[in-house]
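Hi there, hope your week has been kind to you so far. No rush at all, and the record is pasted right below.
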Amino acid sequence: MRRALGSVRARAALGATLVVAVALVAAGTAVLLSLWSNLSGQASTQAERTARAVAADLVAGTAYDQLSLDDDDRPVQVVDPAGRLVAASEDLERISGTGVAAVRPQAVTGDTGSSESTADDDSLSTGEIDDDVSFTDGSATVDGDEADYRFAAVRVEADGDGTLTVYAGAPLSAEQSAVSTALTVMLIGFPLLLGVVAGVTWLVTRRALRPVEGIRAEMAESTASEDLARRVPVPDTHDEVARLARTTNETLAALETSVERQRRFVADASHELRSPIASLRTQLEVGAAHPELLDVEGAVEDTVRLQRLAADLLLLARLDAGERPADARFDLAEVVREQVEGRVGVTLETAVSVEVGGSRGQLGRLVANLLDNAQRHARSAVTVDVRREGEWVVVEVADDGDGVPEADRERVFERFVRLDDARSRDDGGAGLGLAIARDVAVRHGGTLTVREAATGGALFGLRLPVA
């Protein structure tokens, strides 16, 4: 049961059913109250009409025993100022709700007390029917039939009789029958309607969520098979489910790319580490067996190379992990001067002092990598410029080498990429310098590109936002 209610379809169907149920109960209650009010108003009108007709006969001087009180089986009472019943419907057997329980007229002897009535009810003149009418609910038994009635009370000033009160009733059976019928229809129809609403909501929600189930199933199979090349089906719609499927596929594609990149990174790193480790091990083994043959300089060189490669891999790992650069401000031109100092063939032509924000160490590493790359490919000279362009500081490193072919100007920033296959590993490095430089630039909100220099070589341009 809990599992069934835990589904979106069940919750949607239950929610829609509850909302419709509340709306139907409210609407049904309003309809019943309106129906009862209208029908009760009609009964009040009928009762008042009957009471005023009898009052008119009394004004005309009709005797009590000559009044027409037996039409339509409606109970009628005429009460004198003393509260005595002076006329009533012939078949009236019981009555309540009028304040006078008597059903048989009482004989009136002597003075009726009209003078007292005149003193007490001087608001009505002789032969006048009161415009005000009061209504009460009660019951009566007429000719053996008991029913509920709406009673109207009308006062009338009859000649010589004082102020009389005429009570006339109109049956409420039609109103009660209509309300009962409407209530029965609602009690039968509402559950059926709620069932239809629940069923339709269930079917519509099931149809709408069918693509979601397909997405879930495909994701489950992809997880079980560890195959990131799988993609979820995209429904031929333009709704939220289709957008979810497209976003899921984009996420899977990004994850596949990331995993593949990680695999290549591990494979390339293992390959690059194998050479210096194997060389160092060989030299140490030879040195252990023949100390006189130990190449100390070669061992140190391999150790330094191994140390640099490990540092590059560690920095790339931190960058991939999303390490945020330090929030510091410093002069980028000073950082460039520090990296240029002591390098043979490198000339700092312009150096405009501009402050930038970020990690001084990482940006120093970026500049050093660009200079190392330029010196490795230059024939004779490397030039460096630092200048400001609006809200950006630009650092350009140019060499007079062979340059970078246009088709490879993005590929050079990939990890473990070396364009010159004939270049030895010792001279060419591991192919991580430019990749590190690009990642550092991007994480500092900047860009790093390469184009042809005026001397025909490569010109690497770094752009960073001014602090």
User: Anything to note?
Assistant: Residues 418 and 431 are 6 Å apart (CA to CA). The chain has a mean pLDDT of 81. The chain has three domains: 1-225, 240-320, 328-465. The longest helix spans residues 173-225.
